[in-house]
Design goal:
The structure holds three protein chains of three kinds. Chain A is α/β, with parallel strands linked by helices. Helices cover about 30% and strands about 20% of the residues of chain A. In chain A, the strands form two sheets. Chain A has an eight-stranded mixed β-sheet, sandwiched between helices. A four-stranded antiparallel β-sheet of chain A has the order 2-1-4-5, with helices on one face. The longest helix of chain A is centred in the middle third of the chain and has 18 residues. Chain C has a domain of about 70 residues. Chain C has eight helices and ten strands. In chain C, helix 5 runs parallel beside helix 6. The chains are: A alpha/beta, B mainly alpha, C alpha/beta.
Chain lengths: ~350, ~290, ~300
């Protein structure tokens, strides 16, 4: 399987010019998605995940400004290419599935016509709709978007996005407007179809648990940065970054009856400029003195995981003699070379 | 590190004014302010006496002494233009206020109560809307007799249906919102809900529609006066000036052109102001921070 | 993750506050084109005791929202009845009788507050409606309530669009509590909030209830959230309540197949138990100053 990158964001910085000044949506975000991978990009509002997802196709609002770093999709630098190249990229390489499936369709056109407009004609359209599990295809093709249920519209959206055989599909909370039991089905459908087409999937969501079943890779965003990423099973089983840990323990679902969940105090930040230190410091239960003043590096923690936190990475971590995660608890503290990689948690 | 090339058309420039800040809107506002000032201060300005006849040669063109020329009675056109502006604005303004008062209430009631009442109001408005404006205006004036009162009522009848529709549509979306439901659960009576919760949130749409109604009102008044059914001499409105000058079109075209162009400018400015307001007010209505 | 138990609920004293009997609600078709009537609720019965939290869980179309509206008297029953403290909630005179005793917190943080009103006016609204308290007293009550829900009273002068979603929902809760109601209906009140904020607000609801003792009906499609706050849960499916029981049952083995299906959508991520994580730095021995003179705060005492 080719391991070439379909998406590579390197310390991407993006700001919005608003009436109240600048809002920094991405503050040095780094992310890679390899061909065929199913990756979840998890974050709450303000984390920058939607911005990062939409930036892949440069589908940003007019007041967005790229101020640093780079973003490459299938080797094409999204912020430095010509408009023509960008359009070609959107046509051939990218697919998008949006949050509100009914609203993402043009309300004035029947489904068949809309699929035609994106280049999916006749028999292809029928096949595409069959693939996403729709029955009574002729009715769906003849229907207007408002005549479709949320679930059906979501399937149509997926069919349209995949119909062009993209290399990277970006789904922005595709099941937000869909029922709980249907949600599973639709996600499963999305993931399977992507696998079949050999298409990489970047799933934007705030639901940490929904991704557990479906995504092989997970990246967690906070304050405009990717603070932790790696294989889903490992990250969810043994989260490293304090935000990931706090988030997982704050969610209802796995508590014992009557047990009280510790919510993360405070609220997610709205950045007005580059964060001077770690954006999670004010809320972090393990904050250290230098955390609010020194930016942590986004650094690998082992072969496939990375974390952006002083407890684990960088010179300060090593200098302060923090024992790397896993298997080293209780060992005497001594300064270790910065590139000493710890073993896996379990 | 280059700034992304964001196409000019896609950039959103935010203006600090209560209306869109682009050049056209600003010109419109300036024009309107000038017209309004002339209308208000008219009698105080050294333009001449609108009623005085024979102050100059009849039907003479614009000159140094008479900037807008003179009419068939030897009156200077300039002060009559000022008076015309004033009458036009006043008449249309009063008519629009009347329209607003009636339509806003009816629109909100139709949206909130729905059912038979709502249908009745909406359909009645539709019926009036279906009438060609001029015919309806003539009908009204025939009943009331030519003059200012008839013109005001005619304008109100013609502008109300659209305003009722707009207010009803805006109110329908407001009435379904959670804060209205919360107020109902709290035991608020319908009048409280309409005036404390619905009205402030439909005001934006009503104001925008009001400016369009103003331009319609001005146009209608001018049409009526042009037909001789509106403002009667010696009162002057821009429309009646055109009416009076129409007879002399071939020999003294300025009598028609000058008030006509002025009328067109006024209507255009009002419409542009409405556009600017609408863009601004709509944006604010949607702006919600998550 | 602490294992502190959540505050105990006021024990039910037997006499129900709300009694729903064989409630059916049918929405007629629109007439034009002969659309069929929708049976939103088909003969539903439920009781809520004073101080109790009853969770109502179901998907869209299950009738849970309709039941919530019926409890508040916003929707008239097609048959059956809803009684609050013995008297019907809809019909003549109900509004006057119930004013202030029944309140609601709704889903949409964007529209839960009137955007043209300042925060304090929104919170004071129920008091203004019931006219139970003088103007000056109202402002004081508002400030006290804002503090109770964890908001800085300085926010009282702001407008809703200047607040975050979580803050707006807290204001909505303050507004619902200001008349000291006996029952508050939470209709998808935390659904639209971020995950971490959801838990904050859920904890707040529990704390407030422990302190003020109001009964609550918590409606949501999210079983995890409903389970967390409720003492009893009713599961709605296609207009009926297919299972009702104490919350413990929903942590273990529910009876109805639909309930089990709902439970299967809950997260099942394997996580290590709440015992101390041997692999994590917090268990590292504390450090003294290192060679560069920067002292590092012991994470166990830091934060």
């Amino acid at each position: 399987m080719s391991r070439d990158l379909v998406l590579e964001a390197r310390e991407l910085e993006l700001e919005y010019r608003t009436r109240e000044g600048r809002v920094r949506s991405l503050d040095s975000a780094s992310l890679t998605v390899r061909a065929g991978e199913i990756t979840a990009l998890v974050g709450e509002s303000g984390s920058g995940k939607s911005t990062l997802g939409m930036a892949a196709g440069r589908l940003l609002a007019g007041n967005a400004e790229h101020v640093g770093g780079s973003l490459e999709v299938a080797g094409v630098s999204v912020f430095a290419c010509t408009d023509e190249r960008l359009r070609a990229l959107r046509r051939a390489t990218l697919g998008f599935v949006f949050q509100n499936p009914v609203a993402a369709l043009d309300p004035t056109m029947r489904v068949a016509r809309q699929m035609e407009l994106v280049g999916i004609l006749g028999a292809e359209a029928t096949r595409a709709l069959e693939e996403v599990g729709l029955r009574d295809i002729s009715r769906v093709l003849r229907a207007y978007p408002h005549e479709l249920s949320g679930g059906m519209a979501a399937r149509v959206g997926i069919a349209m996005a995949l119909g062009r055989d993209p290399r990277l599909l970006i789904a922005d909370e595709p099941t937000a407007a869909v029922d709980a039991t249907l949600r599973e089905q639709i996600l499963e459908l999305l993931v399977e179809r992507c696998r079949e087409h050999g298409c990489a999937l970047l799933l934007l969501t705030h639901d940490l648990h929904a991704v557990a079943h479906h995504c092989t890779q997970i990246a967690v965003m906070y304050g405009g940065r990717v603070v932790e990423d790696g294989p889903t099973g490992e990250v969810l089983a043994a989260p490293l970054h304090p935000y990931t840990r706090a988030l997982l323990s704050a969610l209802p679902g796995e508590e014992r009856p009557g047990e009280r969940l510790e919510s993360i105090r405070g609220v997610p930040p709205v950045l007005r400029g580059p964060s001077p230190g770690c954006a999670f410091s004010p809320r972090c239960p393990h904050v250290m003195e230098h955390c609010p003043h020194v930016r942590p590096l986004h650094a690998p923690v082992e072969e496939s995981r990375a974390v952006c936190c002083h407890l684990f990475t960088g010179e300060l971590g090593a200098r302060a003699g923090v024992p790397e995660a896993a298997g080293l608890a209780g060992s005497a503290v001594s300064s270790r070379p910065a590139d000493d990689r710890p073993k896996e948690a379990r | 590190m280059s700034a992304a090339r964001i196409p000019r058309a896609a950039r959103v420039r935010r203006s600090r004014l209560p209306f869109r800040g682009d050049l056209l809107s600003r010109i419109a506002v300036v024009l309107l302010v000038v017209f309004a000032l002339v209308a208000v201060l008219g009698p105080l300005l050294p333009l001449g006496d609108p009623q005085a006849i024979n102050v100059g040669p009849r039907l003479s063109g614009p000159s140094g002494e008479f900037l807008a020329g003179t009419d068939s009675l030897g009156r200077s056109l300039l002060p009559r233009l000022a008076q015309g502006l004033r009458t036009t604005f006043l008449l249309a303004g009063v008519a629009v206020l009347l329209t607003a008062a009636v339509s806003v209430v009816l629109g909100m009631v139709a949206a909130y109560f729905g059912g038979v009442v709502g249908e009745l109001i909406a359909r009645t408005a539709d019926v009036f809307f279906a009438f060609p404006a001029i015919l309806l205006a003539i009908l009204v004036v025939t009943v009331s007799g030519p003059g200012i009162v008839g013109a005001v009522v005619a304008i109100a009848l013609i502008c109300s249906p659209m305003m009722i529709r707009v207010v009803r549509a805006a109110a329908l979306s407001v009435v379904g919102r959670d804060f209205v439901t919360a107020a109902r659960v709290g035991g608020a009576r319908p009048w409280r809900i309409l005036f404390v919760h619905v009205l402030p949130n439909v005001a934006g749409a009503a104001i925008v529609q009001g400016t369009y109604a103003l331009s319609v009102g001005i146009l209608l008044e001018s049409a009526l006066s042009f037909l001789g059914l509106g403002v009667q001499p010696p009162e002057a409105s821009l429309g009646s000036l055109v009416h009076e000058g129409a007879v002399y079109l071939s020999i003294a075209p300025w009598l028609v052109l000058i008030p006509g162009v002025l009328l067109a400018l006024v209507i255009m400015s009002v419409n542009l102001l409405g556009d600017g307001l609408r863009d601004r007010l709509d944006v604010r209505a949607v702006e919600v921070r998550r | 993750m602490s294992s502190a138990m959540r505050p105990p609920q006021t024990p039910a004293n037997g006499r129900p506050l709300v009694r729903v009997s064989e409630l059916a609600v049918t929405y007629n078709g629109s007439g034009r084109g002969g659309a069929e009537p929708v049976h939103a609720l088909r003969g539903v019965s439920l009781e809520v005791c004073p101080g109790e939290t009853v969770g109502l869980v179901g998907e869209s179309g299950s009738g849970k929202t309709t039941l919530g509206r019926a409890l508040l008297g916003l929707v008239a029953p097609s048959s059956g009845e809803v009684r609050f403290d013995g008297a019907p909630v809809s019909g003549r005179g109900a509004g006057r009788r119930l004013r202030g005793r029944l309140q609601v917190v709704l889903q949409n943080p964007d529209w839960s507050l009137n955007p043209s009103l300042r925060v304090w006016r929104s919170v004071a609204e129920p008091l203004a409606i019931t006219r139970s308290v003088s103007r000056r007293e109202r402002r004081r009550a508002v400030d006290a309530m804002l503090e109770l829900v964890g908001l800085d009273p300085v926010l009282a002068e702001r407008r809703p669009h200047e607040l975050s979603g979580g803050q707006r929902q807290r204001v909505a809760i303050a507004r619902a509590m200001i008349t000291k109601p006996s029952l508050i209906v939470f209709d998808e009140a935390v659904t639209a909030l971020d995950a971490s904020v959801q838990t904050q607000v859920l904890n707040l609801i529990q704390d407030l209830q422990a302190e003020r003792g109001f009964a609550a009906v918590f409606i949501s499609h999210d079983l995890a959230a409903v389970r967390y706050v409720s003492r009893r849960i009713a599961v709605a499916y296609q207009g009926e309540l297919v299972e009702t029981g104490p919350v413990e049952r929903f942590y273990g083995e529910p009876e109805h197949p639909y309930t089990r299906q709902l439970m299967s959508t809950l997260p099942t991520v394997e996580r290590e138990p709440a015992s101390p994580d041997a692999s994590w730095p917090e268990n590292a021995p504390p450090l003294s100053e290192d060679a560069h003179g920067t002292s590092r705060k012991d994470p166990r005492h830091g934060g």
